[in-house]
Amino acid sequence: IHLLNNDIFVLSKKLNRYKETISQEQPPDNSQLEKLYNDVGINFSDNLKKTLEETKIFHKKIIQNRNNFLQAEVEEISNLIDKKKKKVESFIESRSNLLSVLSTHGALEEYTQLQSRFLERKNELESIKEKINDMKNLTEQKKIIKKEKLELESKLTRDYEESRDKWEKEIANFSENTKALYDESGSLIIDISENGYSFNVEIARSSSEGVGKMKIYCYDLMLIENLSTNGKVNFLIHDSTIFDGVDSRQRAHAIELAQRKSSELNFQYICALNSDMLPINDFSDNFNVYKYIRLTLTDKDPSESLMGFRYNE
User: Fold this and answer.
1) 89-to-107, 176, 221 alpha-carbon distances in Å
2) Residue 199's closest CA among 181, 182, 184, 216?
3) Is 197 helix (H, G, I), strand (E, B) or coil?
4) Residue 208 has what pLDDT?
């Protein structure tokens, strides 16, 4: 319908132009030419008049032929316009019938719903495309991270090997400390994994709560040995909880070990113990624990409590 209406518009403009041309087309008036010759004192001869008459007739024929041509064009264009208008009317009627059928059967509503669902699916498609792009970007990021991780692992492996002398010495110290407590060497395991350095401790019967506390004790003692040797830290302090659940023999061995190590390496070891946790009967014969007691606190009066504080029930 749209294309036909455009054609009709163009043809109508062309038809109007042809009609205007036909109405404006007139033969020339030869009397004006005769008057012009008479005014200048020249008489027309019969031969000349005959020639002008023939010219006039010829010109009329030309005009008539042109008018006939234009008239034929006008008729043809008019017929073409009528045909196209009838086609437009036919298409309009067909469209009306189709819309009527669609409306009667609810198809227009279905079409509207389908259009709405189409837009929803289109939006979902765009969202999925964005997610795909995000996943592609994520994959690229993973590749970059994997590459960087491999580089870090390589540096870590190199550092691990370059530091072997240091950590092997620490492992040996830990093993020596555990053997002094249990007559059986424990193991400090230093390894590397995808997350960096990993540390683990293995001691026989390590599932026991007391043995678990002694793992910490031996590890702390290993650290102070290293730090005091390098002049960084020269003291280690433990609260009495480090010995909770620990057998009295191991407590005695631990205190004697701390005394020996602190003397050899010149660091200070401080431990707070309740009097009933002091393993007097399990110390070696040549070890006098009272020699190393620097402060005794009681709850008899404020002067014998820590900084004068007393805690009542």
Assistant:
1) 24, 109, 105
2) 216
3) strand
4) 67
